[in-house]
Amino acid sequence: QVQLVESGGGLVQTxxxxxxxxxxxxxxxxxNVMGWYRQAPGNQRELVATIxxxxxxxxxxxxxxxxxxSRDNAKNTVYLQMNSxxxxxxxxxxxNLKQRMIKLYEYWGQGTQVTVSS
Length: 118
Description:
single chain, mainly beta, seven-stranded mixed β-sheet, four-stranded antiparallel β-sheet, 0% helix, globular
């Protein structure tokens, strides 16, 4: 099993910045993809950004140029630096880890609230 613990959410004004962290523990493979998804009230959960163990990244178009995903493989931790925040970024942000052990397994954190006031 894998456990994901997020931190760093909160309330920020438009144009501000926040940094989310997610620490993974448990049975973690050396090759995996970690990342962030978000869900606003009434909306489906959507991709924000992901990063693989080799450093390859993928971003939603809505956050490109404003958010940066990074990771520390030695600590099994993924980060999301969010700059130039907008009210539409308000959501619960969930950490995600995908890894293959014969079949693909996916794990989720408990979520952290990010609120951007206008």
